[in-house]
Amino acid sequence: MNILLDLFLTFAKIGVFTFGGGYAMISMIENNCVERKKWITHDEMMNVTVIAESTPGPIAINAATYVGYKQAGFIGAVIATLGIVLPSFLIIFAISSLLDHFLEITIIASAFKGIKVAVGILILDAAITMIKKMHKKLLPRVIMLCSFAAMMLINIFAWNFSSISLMLIASVVSLTIFCIKGAPEQKGGAKK
Hints:
By secondary structure, this protein is an all-alpha fold.
C-alpha cells in the first residue's frame, strides 16, 4: 500500500508543478524516479522516453504508466497514471468553470509568459541529459545531428514536412544499419 501512495503522490507532484507538457516533465520524472527513488535506471529512462515518444499518448503519461507498472504491476500503472493526470485535469476544470476570461487577467497572462521560458529550459535540460547519456558511438550521434539539422531546416524554411515522417525515416535508417551489422549479443538470456 505504501508504494501505491508513494507512486500517486510522486506523480501528482510532477503533474501539479510541471507546465508545458510531457517534454518538460521528463527531467522531473528522471529526477524523482531515477535519482531520488531509484525506481528505474538511467538506461530504462532513456528507453521509456524513446518508446513513450513513439506510442500514442502524452510522453509523461506513458512514462508514469511504465514506472507504476514496474513498481506495482497493473494497479501501480493505474495509480501512477492517475497521479500525473488528475492534478492537471482538476486545475483546468477549475479554471474553465470559474473564470471565463482567465488569460485576459494581466497578472495571469504575464505569469504564462514567464512559464513559457521555464518550459523551454526544462525541455532543453531533458535533451541535454539524454544526449549526455547516449552511447558514445558515432551512429546514434550522426542520426541525432542529421535529424536535428533536418528539423531546423524544416522550421526555418516552413516546409510542409511532418516530424513523424522524420522519426520514421530515422527509425528505418537505424533498423537497416542494425540488421546489416547484425544484432549485438545480448547479456544474459539464452545464447545460440
